[in-house]
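User: I'm writing a short report section on ligand binding and want a predicted complex to refer to. Could you take this sequence and adenosine-5'-triphosphate and write out the structure as tokens? A short remark afterwards would be nice.
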Amino acid sequence: MPVRCTADAPGPVRTRGILAGRASAGRGPVPVRIRPEVEPLSSTRVDREAVRTREIAAEQEYVSKLYGKLDLLREETTRRLRETLGQTGGSPQARTERDISTRMYTERLTQLSAVEHGLCFGRIDQDDGETFHIGRLGLFDEDNDYEPLLIDWRAPAARPFYLATAAARDGVRLRRHLRTSWRQVRDFEDEILDLDAAEQGQDLGLAGEATLLARLDARRTGQMQDIVATIQAEQDRIIRAGLNGVLVVQGGPGTGKTAVALHRAAYLLYTFREQLTKRGVLVVGPNTTFLSYIGQVLPSLGETGVLLSTVGGLYPGITATGADSARTAEIKGRESMVKVLTAAVRDRQQVPKDHVEVTFDHEPLHLRKSDATAARAKARRSRKPHNLGRRIFRDAMFEALTTQVADRLGRDLLDRRDLDEIRQELRADAGVAAAVDALWPELTPTQVLDDLLSDATALRSAGRKHLDDDERAQLLRERGAAWTPADVALLDELAELLGEDDTQAQAERDRQQREELAYAQGVLHIMEQDEEIADEERLRVSDVLDAELLAERQGTRSDMTAAQRAAEDRTWTFGHVIVDEAQELSAMAWRVLMRRCPSRSMTLVGDIAQTGALGGASSWDEVLHPYVKDRWKLAELTVNYRTPAEIMDLAANVLSELDTDLAAPSSVRSSGHPPWTREVAERDLGTELVQAVSGELAEIGEGRLAVVVPPHLLERAGERLAAALPEQVVGTEPDDLESPAVVLAVEQVKGLEFDSVLVVEPAAITGETERGLNDLYVALTRATQRLGILHSAPLPAALR
Ligand SMILES: Nc1ncnc2c1ncn2[C@@H]1O[C@H](COP(=O)(O)OP(=O)(O)OP(=O)(O)O)[C@@H](O)[C@H]1O
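Assistant: Sure. The structure tokens for the complex follow:
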């Protein structure tokens, strides 16, 4: 008879057998999980308690040893870093070595600090008697032939911890989950995969889902936590999928897409460190609220070299503080905007009606229509971006003007040197240069876009083929208005269309790079010679560092990671790009991301059923075909770890109204709290809302509540609640996620979760845009425990 060894199995939570059910669903068998049972107090039970206490003590001893090792490593690394920083002067070679060491020790210290909490969380016992502990990083026993003390969760040896099942044990006899608090082992639970052993009376088997359920049922804090200790098999397969190509992860609400995406970033950086450290990894989220919600996950896994950004944050120097209406954002996000922008740029390449007169050398000179037309055609034929084509236009114009001056002076009397001189003088003449430049000016993206969006005539001209009157009216705004996220994709496109005439800067960069490379090769050569003399066996510098990498590090002595450098460089291309809530991106946003990832090494996670943006995706194929045709892989997540069954049943009605073919993910647990609905008179909505919020806050204690309202009620509801319940710290800004209650519009709750969610006026949410039902589906699926619906207007059919 198996015993229950968990002290704190979750109370009201009931598993729905989903985990076990997956075996029959054909997704691979799962281990037999031995359920907790209530037993009469007997001598057997007392014995088992004693066994349990002994096991905890043994684990504590081991875990303490690991922390001891961690402390030693920290001390050692700190000492080395201090020594390195204390050194000054020396040869260029010594300085290079110092820079490399400083960077290495700093990164190592960050990693060692990040793993303090939950250092070791699991163990696997193999058939051959070997036992491995699994944790947040790898630790080895140097005094014992580098025997592993702790296996990094990302290492191949840790895989069975996540994947082994009773039917496919992979040599694993038992899997143990450790529950720790700081450095203390509080409890453990075992899954016996070797059923023969279990039947023979091995009595340390536990309810396998308890650790997972305890995690899922915990109160939310406003910050996403890592799931490293409880990654499920279907998630593990995605996390460890290969680096190359486009992988789409489709999954309903709460299936762990965000969690998987972030753990995949950590896994890829661990496994392909050299490749990805150079180019960096970009994680794209839908808005800054979401980014701050997930911001702690990667640092807690010891990874700091990832750039987290929205698409709107990818243009250095621009902060998108403005907001567009859903319809304006949709228009700005259309692929056809490329043509509008191209036309806007072409509109800036002008020819005079007849001619422009300037004075040169006290004589009138004509910039003629025919010359300008020929120069423009030549520049356009080159297909160079506007600012690079400008050189061709200018050359052609100055050539025509030189001829004009030469004709006036008498061409036959002039030789080549005279012509060169005239050309130089023309170029140096400010008046002439200004007149030529006015026809084909040097432009910046912000200038072109601001001019275009604030000028009805410019919009009419550029948009004549692609925008109707109403659409142009939607785009028109004040000159100098704040940039919006949708504008950023337009600016990025314009940067491509305009190009940057950086010929001189590039030549200087190339020269520096050549010098650095030559120098780095020299340094490596000297280091190698020293090492050969010192120790034949030791790992050589050149084994871990090639001249190119060394040169790159040389060039960035300021200790910047690839992510930091990437944030400052619009043209940076990443080693891997991960996009969360990928269904929301517009065609223009995809163009930005594809430019940042020419290798197409990408992970895109999202849910087509949750698409709220009018310009968002309705199928993955439609998004990806233009870039990779059908060369992309699809992985699906099917289990909902967030939303309890009671709430998901309700949300499923909305989903089936959206698309009868879409299946809601199966909830892994139920909470025992059926969702409630309350109809109130419109005039009482405010008072009832205050009451409902107080009631819910009392229910969830330390947890978090979100009040999700239609955009037009956002301000009013926020003010009302903040005034009525000041002591509850009702946040009204997305950045207030950590306050007990926060009032948000649907767009802002995308990707987030709360213990309790109160949806106000769902009919107004569904009526807001064409994607209103998708929005309602998102709002309903944010709760981990409780859901309430408050309304004065009749409920949408799906909720009745
Ligand atoms: N294996 C796991 N162990 C513990 N918690 C998990 C696991 N998988 C998912 N979760 C938890 O489930 C919740 C939902 O996960 P996540 O936010 O990643 O889902 P999602 O698919 O991105 O949802 P949505 O599409 O609704 O934004 C989170 O609290 C996450 O930590």
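A remark for your report: The CA atoms of residues 226 and 259 lie 7 Å apart. Residues 212, 215-216, 225, 227, 230-232, 235, 251, 253-259, 607, 610, 641-642, 751, 753, 781 surround adenosine-5'-triphosphate (CB under 6 Å).
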